[in-house]
Amino acid sequence: MMLSRIKRSNFWIRFRIILLIAGIAAGVLAIIFFGFPLVEDLIKGVDPSLRYQPKVEASFSLEDEDAPKAIKSEEMYFDKKYQLKNEPYIDGDNIIFTTQVQKGSVQQLDGVVVYDTQSGEERLLANTEKKYDNFISPVLSGNVAVFLDSMTNGGGRILGYDLEKDEQFVIKEYAYAPPRLSISGERLAFMQWAGEETQRLYVYNVATREPATVKLYEQTTGNSAVDISRSDMVWAVEDGKGNSVLKRIAFNEDDAAFDDYNFGNAVYGPKTNGKEIVFRTEKDTASCTLMMSTEGGEPTKLAEGVFDYDIGDNFVAYSKGGQIYVAYTNATDTVQLTNEVTRNRLASANGDGICYYDETDKSTENAVLDEVVQYAYVPAT
């Protein structure tokens, strides 16, 4: 019995010693982890309670540094002065469009306006003379504007306008469907019907006012419009058997020469910036596959289900599902320019600029007549 009591006494002595050692160790650890930082905080004048609060990293970001920068859109605003803004075309800091100036019961596009995106000021071209029904299809290059004076039933004339001299001049009359105009630098290009089965490809120098017939197509089923850059121009030729092939002319210093690229037999609506060529593979523009080639290389697919498209210096702009997209040509990035809650339609792209319609209000019962035109500039990548 005595031996059992001695053993229990020794057990409690050892247990108390262990608890004492553990307490001393815990105290030392508490001094290390809390005492020293507490003294440090008191010395620095920092509230000790803030040391153990959750922290938020100030520099934390989900953005990729290599991702393309956001593109900012602005509205071309006139306080309802020009409600109709027909076919706005952007060239540098200027946007040209045709509109109705004289109010009346009959809607006619009888004015041409140039809008300065930097100052927000507009200029109604003062010395235009409308001979037929409507001014349509305006384009701009530097100080020269070109547009059509078009008859509703077909026919009309191509007009030029010197912005410095405030002077209109006639480039050419046409008798059938209105030609689509493309301008770059001093060169204006267009494909014109000369009969029911004949088309002519023209290049016109807007500085010297000299025309040249580049090509005559007879017994044709219809070629695409021509698109021109400072170093080349492209169009597509159909053979009536379901084939459509690319045609290209490259400009040198003093001459020009045919320099065809073989992109197959399904090339429609080609456009060029001098380096890249973009085209669709279907004749139907309501929904098409968009392809792009760089310097004649193997074309690659940009997008499907595209409604309309155009090309700038370093990007392709296209509309799809009511949204505007920008695909950079020297990278693999594509940016959605517009917001999902809006409905939009591409108007033009040229140089570093994009112009498009915001048609959100037109999709409602309270649609307004005033057309909303937005523009944006694409930064270099």
From TrEMBL:
It comes from the Bacteria. SUPFAM superfamilies: Tricorn protease N-terminal domain. Keywords: Membrane, Transmembrane, Transmembrane helix. The chain crosses the membrane at residues 12-36. InterPro entries: 6-blade_b-propeller_TolB-like. This is Tat pathway signal sequence domain protein. It comes from Christensenella minuta.
